[in-house]
């Protein structure tokens, strides 16, 4: 995956969308076409996609009009129909109409109980064929909040930080309550948290206010007055739950529900190695404590190095729409208002270091 950086110059959502579309219209058009083809391969016909996307975009406009305007601005400047860009923004909501996939992402966040800045790391694992390009976006909201984030072209947000000392990581989940009703896009929930929240509590209130049709977990971490706080906000149409760090300050999440109530409806597939990756993260968490990001990435791999379960490799024997690999390794620096990143898996980040955005 190739990463592209854009520092937008306007706080107006529609104009920001136009700026993204004008600068990266070819990539917006490309990822839109790739997702629509992917939905077809999964057995979701275009009329169904358009119906889900229309309801999801309406839900977004009612819940956060600015993000709907930004999406429409991207489409306008890219020269594509608005629903095609919105389909990328609501891709998780569309995928709720298909059987669950593997969903291989791993997040580890340490909020030191004795004080100090948080230590975080995440792998983002997805289909190689869908995301040859990723976007590092810097923006300023109408209220003056500064945000830095990583996302796909057309999606509102995935991983990021704001200048209030709050950041988030993003993992997909599946729940029996997921449906094709077209709720607020979960990627838009992540974006609104980054734009508006200054505390974990505020992030929870934002997440809980959205009517969802698909599930995900936002692991939110804040740092102020020398202390850190973290929580995983497990979101589903059945409700939102809060998972707190353990006594050692570590909070780990993969792709299955941890809250006892929501876990009863977990719909992850047997082929997923979510539990195995969670157990791996637990086993190596002490080795990650107190380490800078590259050393944390090396410890994240554990003794297995490039063969670690958190380093997902594409399987060349399977068709493109069934391929998964680790496309990004990311770490948050809240005191420094920075997103550290390296395309590829943690072993690559350990060898080459992480760039700062």
Q: Would you give an account of this structure?
A:
The protein has helices spanning 13-41, 46-63, 65-78, 82-89, 91-95, 186-196, 200-208, 260-263, 274-288, 293-301, 346-352, and strands at residues 2-7, 106-110, 119-126, 133-140, 146-151, 159-162, 166-172, 216-224, 227-236, 239-243, 250-253, 325-333, 338-343, 355-356. It has 357 residues and is α+β, with helices and mostly antiparallel strands. The strands form 2 sheets. Strands 1-4-5-6-7-8-9-10 form an 8-stranded mixed beta sheet, with helices on one face. Strands 11-2-3-12-13-14 form a 6-stranded antiparallel beta sheet, with helices on one face. The protein is globular, with a radius of gyration of 18 Å.
Question: SSE layout and pairings?
Answer:
Elements lengths: L1 E6 L5 H29 L4 H18 L1 H14 L3 H8 L1 H5 L10 E5 L8 E8 L6 E8 L5 E6 L7 E4 L3 E7 L13 H11 L3 H9 L7 E9 L2 E10 L2 E5 L6 E4 L6 H4 L10 H15 L4 H9 L23 E9 L4 E6 L2 H7 L2 E2 L1
Parallel strand pairs: 1-4
Antiparallel strand pairs: 2-3, 2-11, 3-12, 4-5, 5-6, 6-7, 7-8, 8-9, 9-10, 12-13, 13-14
The largest beta-sheet arranges its strands as 1-4-5-6-7-8-9-10
Rg from Cα: 18 Å
The percent of residues in helical segments reads 25-40%
Biggest sheet architecture: 8 strands, mixed
Structural class: alpha+beta
The fraction of residues assigned to DSSP E strands is: 15-25%
Poorly predicted spans: none
